[in-house]
């Protein structure tokens, strides 16, 4: 038996329960990971609320770090005692331990702590595909990244600055704006007080930006389109404020022959080779000190519901981990 967070219905944080669950021995191709730290991500609230459907009852969480303590038949790449992490599931990371496919785990390199790995796998690999593959940021680019003081945003500010970009971020308070600037943002727009497209026009001398990275969703989608240069790319990768309503694609033409994509980490790490490459690139910039996890909140696993409340109320900054 292990302790885990489970849900039997979708809804608010109150649907989450902390209970004993049976954990079978790992099947062929799997290992059992005893978790030492678990990552909290906004996507977890989508599964809890039902925005992203999952068979019920189920666990929550896609990201964790820990130690292999049992190995299933046929596994040759991992052994008992290896420090490992994952950021693409399986669903159920909010638990003391979980069985996971060995080929979807990566070894944590020396010099990277379990907490940092748990906080960085999903968010860090998300930034990797956004900045290096969805739109390959080049020296001299000016980019706009919403929620720049969030877990993904702070990593993106650091990484994009390292790539030579001018980073425009948005934030909801002066305190969050200060965090984004410390992470590398050159300009931070207080979206509750300022006209975001007007400020982007001012900052860029009227040129606007070639790419907007938007993990907020409904509240920022229209303004994001208005920040793009002709033939610019709108990258809508999250729904923190709610799902984007149906879009009339004719708007993309009217606003300058714009491009629109809705990418996901799962899509960019679907193959084992892509997963290994993405994780290796992330660990490389972590080892060089280019990006740091910046874990700012820790909750006991039993308090995961409160962690969700604080996350959705935008009370958190940087990364958050749950500790079993």
TrEMBL record:
Pfam families, per database record: ADH_N (PF08240), ADH_zinc_N (PF00107)
Signal sequence bounds: none
rRNA-binding is among the record's keywords: no
SMART domains, alphabetized: PKS_ER
SUPFAM superfamilies (UniProt xref): GroES-like, NAD(P)-binding Rossmann-fold domains
Record Gene3D superfamilies: Medium-chain alcohol dehydrogenases, catalytic domain, NAD(P)-binding Rossmann-like Domain
A GO molecular-function annotation: quinone reductase (NADPH) activity
GO cellular component: cytosol
UniProt keyword list: NADP, Oxidoreductase
UniProt key word Signal: no
Top class in the EC scheme: oxidoreductase
EC assignment: 1.6.5.5
Protein name as it appears in the record: NADPH:quinone reductase
């Amino acid at each position: 038996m292990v302790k885990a967070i489970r849900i039997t219905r979708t809804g608010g944080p109150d649907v989450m329960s902390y209970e004993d669950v049976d954990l079978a021995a790992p099947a062929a191709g799997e290992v059992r990971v005893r978790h030492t730290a678990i990552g909290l991500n906004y996507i977890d609230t989508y599964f809890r609320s039902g925005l992203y459907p999952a068979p019920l009852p189920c666990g929550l969480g896609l990201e964790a770090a820990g130690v292999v303590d049992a190995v299933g038949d046929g596994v040759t790449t991992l052994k008992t005692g290896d420090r490992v992490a994952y950021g693409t599931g399986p669903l159920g990371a909010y638990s003391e331990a979980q069985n996971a496919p060995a080929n979807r785990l990566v070894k944590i390199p020396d010099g990277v702590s379990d907490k940092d790995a748990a906080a960085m796998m999903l968010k860090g690999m998300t930034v990797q595909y956004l900045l290096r593959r969805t739109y390959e940021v080049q020296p001299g680019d000016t980019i706009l990244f919403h929620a720049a003081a969030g877990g993904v945003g702070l990593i993106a500010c650091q990484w994009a600055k390292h790539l030579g970009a001018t980073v425009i971020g948005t934030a909801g308070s002066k305190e969050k704006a200060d965090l984004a600037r410390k992470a590398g943002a050159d300009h931070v727009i207080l979206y509750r007080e300022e006209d975001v497209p007007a400020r982007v026009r001012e900052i860029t001398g009227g040129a606007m930006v070639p790419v907007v990275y938007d993990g907020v969703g409904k509240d920022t989608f229209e303004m994001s389109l208005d920040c793009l240069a002709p033939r610019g790319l709108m990258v809508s990768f999250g729904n923190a404020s709610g799902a984007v309503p149906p879009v009339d694609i004719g708007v993309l033409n009217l606003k300058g022959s714009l491009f629109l994509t809705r990418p996901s980490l799962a899509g960019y790490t679907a193959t084992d080779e892509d997963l290994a490459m993405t994780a290796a690139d992330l660990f490389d910039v972590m080892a060089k000190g280019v990006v740091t996890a910046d874990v700012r909140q820790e909750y006991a696993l039993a308090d995961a519901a409160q962690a969700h409340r604080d996350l959705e109320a935008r009370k958190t900054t940087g990364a958050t981990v749950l500790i079993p």
